[in-house]
Design goal:
mainly beta; 48% strand; seven-stranded mixed beta sheet; 1 helix
Length: 124
């Protein structure tokens, strides 16, 4: 069974940090771009960050630029999103996804598979 499984979410105080993981099973991540998206209650899904298959290209939403870092370890078949300087507005369910091409991830289209999501809550 082909799956993406997110983990690492939780409750954190403003200014805190978390690292989210996205582990693939049933296939290898090597040839895919990976994206992180989030959805807060009552809001539309928002693209957070993308990374190319090689890891050489990354992009970030303006709202997280300088605070979040996307990375991948193809040997571990896992991608990561490090969240730093968290704000209450970052509260959302975070999802990882795959696209064949990096441009598709950045453009927000042609998603192949989604994980179940992991909840991040930023609150004092």
């Amino acid at each position: 069974q082909l799956q993406l499984v997110e983990s690492g979410g939780g409750l954190v105080q403003p200014g805190g940090s978390l690292t989210l993981s996205c582990a693939a099973s049933g296939f290898t991540l090597d040839n895919y771009a990976i994206g992180w998206f989030r959805q807060a209650p009552g809001k539309d899904r928002e693209g957070v960050s993308c990374i190319s298959a090689s890891g050489h290209s990354t992009n970030y939403a303006d709202s997280v630029k300088g605070r979040f870092t996307i990375s991948r370890d193809n040997a571990k078949n896992t991608a990561y999103l490090h969240l730093d300087s968290l704000k209450p507005d970052d509260t959302a369910v975070y999802y990882c996804t795959l696209t064949t091409y990096y441009s598709e991830c950045v453009g927000g289209s042609a998603f192949l598979l989604w994980g179940q999501g992991t909840q991040v809550t930023v609150s004092s």
